Amino acid sequence: MQPFTLLIKPSGSDCNIDCKYCFYKDRPSEFGHGKQRMSAEVLETLVKDYMDLDFPVAGFAWQGGEPTLMGVDFFRRAVELQKKYGSANVEQPETLFEFCIENELTYLQFIPCVETDPATGGPAEFSITPRQYGDFLCRLFDLWYDYGPEKLNIREFDSLLTHYVLGKHTICTYSKQCAGFVVIEHTGDAFCCEFFVEPKWRLGNILETPLEKLAGDSKKRAFARDKEKLCNKCLLCRHLDICRGGCMKDRARWNEQGGERESYFCESYRQFFDNTVPRFMQIAAGIENGSVGRHTRSADKIRLHIEKLQRKQRFKIKSLA
Length: 321
Ligand code: SF4
Ligand code: SF4
Fold this sequence. Notes:
It is built from 12 helices and 7 strands. By secondary structure, the chain is mainly α.
């Protein structure tokens, strides 16, 4: 379908300004004149139906009459509904999970979006918060655990399982060192990590130096070892063995305490590990004795389970409203 913008008249032709050139003046309104207000039911239906069309961009144009006569709460509700029925995001792991199962996507990776706001030097307004990321990981883990870890690969979770089964991680975030990458830029320049493509961590150029030599460079080894410099909080943390302080890029930002710094996502990791470590260990034991898979649910059952969780979530939101 050709994408279109919705032109919405929530208060019909009603207006408190009464301009003499208004096109409603000489036009009989099908709905009459005076106070007209869109109901909550119409608002929710139009937002849901429109968002379900899944256009690349959703355009809502509020028109009248005078749409602001609806009051600010009406528009707050509209934004809430747009978030609710819009693309799945960090607040909707159940929707995301269901989408992946339905579309048979079985190798997944979730990278938390966090960037610096150049104006403030702090986290950009769109960045995920540590609490959001922790909640997301916990809810996603619950779904994965119930569905069957052997049926769906989630990179971050697989790394923890590998740690419990084989004693080492498969992703660098939780590894002891930052040793897993060499980045090659379009010029042939080589760097230690995609998050540190900067002069300090330039290893050289593959047109001038063999890749093998660049990968074994002392600068590369120094970069890898930097991850082992942990703050006291990490050194004393009960999760140190599986977390290793997280990714270096998340330690480098927004923390001016000096010395070694804890990760921006420390709170997320603690919440996640506190909630899931016993179950990771249980799955790992199941992998070792070959029993993983016996307790897991079918796709239909998991769908029902997700619907139940979503109903619960909606109830929670309503109760808060
Ligand atoms: S959970 Fe926090 S304190 Fe513990 S190792 Fe990870 S980043 Fe450090
Ligand atoms: S900085 Fe982060 S992404 Fe880069 S190698 Fe280290 S842990 Fe991996």
